[in-house]
């Protein structure tokens, strides 16, 4: 008899959003087509044989009965190995030019994994600059912070510092953070899931998420988006 798949606990108390997503809500209410752009590094682009979160999120949103009949596209603008400074150079074409209702910006992982290359201060400054560029546009923004995998936990001090910097930048800009690091840490420390199960076993760097973790993170992200506070009228 095959093993029963591990259930996915999305812990809404960890990942729920503080701020509404008014542009996304308006698009889903009034437009037949809604566009979302996901920009980031290999967590966004995809690595190995594991389908990345943008494609999974698109399917989750299209399957929702609340979105029946709507065309929802999640454009994958991930590029492996990049960090916030690199991604800023792609904002005009890959984000702003697409005029999405929602931008999901995954940042911080390479600042920790390649901490000999990236300055935390410069990464934080680039995140703040990117959020400032997007602030005046008709689109919502969600930041995604680091994954909690073996390679990142080996640099836990730098990881926790970067998570704090991402949170501070988001709070300053009044945008949501999807707290991937805290969610995966909860799975590991409180739910007792071995970190090896959260890490892709085929990844020699032990950096990327496993199939199970990628799928469950996506479900949690979808839940946070769907459950965002209602926009004020």
Layout of SSEs?
Blueprint: H1 12-15, H2 22-30, E1 33-40, H3 42-45, H4 53-63, E2 71-78, H5 84-88, H6 91-95, E3 102-106, H7 109-113, H8 120-135, E4 140-144, H9 150-153, H10 156-173, E5 176-178, H11 180-189, H12 195-198, H13 211-226
Parallel strand pairs: 1-2, 1-3, 3-4, 4-5
Helix pairs in contact: 4-13, 8-10
Describe this structure in words.
- By secondary structure, the protein is an alpha/beta fold.
- It is about 50% helix and about 10% strand.
- The radius of gyration is 17 Å and the shape is globular.
- It starts with 11 loop residues before the first helix and ends in a 7-residue tail after the last helix.
- About 45% of the residues are buried.
The gist of it:
The protein has 233 residues and is of the alpha/beta class.
End-to-end separation in angstroms reads 54 Å
Q: What Rg is obtained from the alpha carbons, in whole angstroms? A: 17 Å
- The CATH class is Alpha Beta
Strand content: 5-15%
- The CATH topology assignment is Rossmann fold
Query: What is the CATH architecture assignment?
Result: 3-Layer(aba) Sandwich
**Mean pLDDT across residues:** 95
Number of domains: 1
Structural class: alpha/beta
CATH H level, superfamily name: SGNH hydrolase
Low-confidence stretches: none
Number of strands: 5
What is the share of helical residues? 40-55%
> How many H/I helices?
13
Order of helices and strands: HHEHHEHHEHHEHHEHHH
What about the largest sheet? 5 strands, parallel
Strand order of the largest sheet: 2-1-3-4-5
- Large-scale geometry: globular
């Amino acid at each position: 008899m095959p093993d029963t798949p591990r259930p996915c606990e999305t812990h809404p108390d960890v990942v729920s959003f503080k701020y509404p997503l008014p542009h996304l809500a308006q698009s889903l209410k009034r437009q037949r087509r809604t566009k979302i752009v996901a920009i980031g590094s290999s967590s966004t682009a995809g690595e190995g044989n594991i389908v990345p979160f943008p494609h999974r999120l698109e399917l989750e949103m299209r399957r929702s009965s609340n979105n029946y009949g709507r065309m929802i596209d999640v454009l994958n603008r991930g590029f492996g190995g990049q960090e916030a400074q690199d991604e800023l150079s792609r904002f005009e074409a890959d984000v702003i030019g697409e005029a999405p209702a929602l931008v999901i910006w995954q940042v911080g992982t390479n600042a920790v994994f390649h901490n000999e290359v990236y300055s935390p201060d410069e990464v934080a400054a680039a995140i703040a600059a990117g959020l400032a560029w997007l602030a005046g546009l008709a689109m919502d923004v969600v930041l995604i912070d680091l994954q909690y995998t073996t390679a990142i936990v080996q640099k836990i001090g730098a990881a926790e510092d970067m998570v704090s910097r991402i949170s501070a930048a988001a709070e300053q800009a009044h945008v949501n953070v999807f707290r991937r690091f805290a969610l995966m840490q909860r799975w590991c420390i409180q739910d007792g899931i071995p970190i090896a199960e959260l890490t892709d076993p085929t990844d020699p760097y032990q950096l990327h998420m496993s199939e199970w973790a990628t799928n469950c993170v996506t479900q949690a992200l979808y839940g946070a988006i769907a459950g965002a506070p209602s926009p004020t009228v």
